[in-house]
Amino acid sequence: MSTDRVLARVRKVVGTAGLERLGPGGTRSTLRALLFDGAGVPAWHQAAACRDLGSEAFFVDSAPDANLRVQAAKRVCRGCPVRTACLADVMAWERPSRRYGVVGGLSPVERQRLHLRMREA
Ligand code: SF4
């Protein structure tokens, strides 16, 4: 199932406004909750720097100005007090073939490299 279809399904469940308020960390956690282990949005997300930002600021893979927007998203993550928890969370459940957007301060390619390093260690 494509990410767009999954997001459309989630929007039906939580509503567009609710999803946009979650930010990327919350969106990932919500998807995880819906698709995998049924856990709710983790408590650390309350302190996330992206909590009140729209998830579109972090999921910019195909935008014409994607590189600038990725750098802007990474700046938000650099100042985030829960970055370690966010990155650990996404690395724990994200499928290597399905990495999208900036999460935990890393792009999909950077998370894939981290995944490979973790697997080697
Ligand atoms: S590290 Fe980035 S994506 Fe994760 S919660 Fe913080 S701001 Fe959001």
TrEMBL record:
Cofactor list: [4Fe-4S] cluster
Record has Hydrolase as a keyword: no
Major localisation: cytoplasm
Locations listed in the record: Cytoplasm
Keyword Iron: yes
UniProt superkingdom: Bacteria
Domain 4Fe-4S Wbl-type: 49-113
Pfam families: Whib (PF02467)
Entry keyword set: 4Fe-4S, Disulfide bond, DNA-binding, Iron, Iron-sulfur, Metal-binding, Transcription, Transcription regulation
Family note: Belongs to the WhiB family.
Name by which UniProt lists this protein: 4Fe-4S Wbl-type domain-containing protein
Source species taxonomy: Bacteria, Bacillati, Actinomycetota, Actinomycetes, Pseudonocardiales
